[in-house]
Amino acid sequence: MALESRITQEEIKKEPEKxxxxxxxxxxxxxVFTTNSGRHHRADEFNRGNVPSSELQIYTWxxxxxxxxxxxxxxxYPEARKKGTHFSxxxxxxxxRGKVYRLKDIGNTVSGRKGADDSxxxxxxxxxxxxxxxxxxxxxxxxxxxxxRMRPF
Length: 153
Known about the structure:
By secondary structure, the protein is of the alpha+beta class.
């Protein structure tokens, strides 16, 4: 006899995230790769054990927000501190079906401005320990590449 789950995707999304006690929970090592070109790294740059050279290692928790991660990146890259600098976040994960890496866009932040994705957490985007984070940084004097999240319609 087969059993089916009656939990819908909407119900899964509505479940509140369990708060993480940062005093009692060990942080994870988040491997972050950045570009200053405004574009993410290509997925094939992560294949066969290779990774891009622009690696940042951050110890953080699953409840880290994109705004929190933005501020940590700005501590390391002074040129990213300028107001209006655009940060585009993507999770890089291993796809076992194709034995390749894939990128999943998860959100954007802008230095000096509040945005809808600021409070988004790694946990809410189904980040798993072992995944990478790719951040495309666009200086304020260059327009970020358009994607579906930024369309006015």
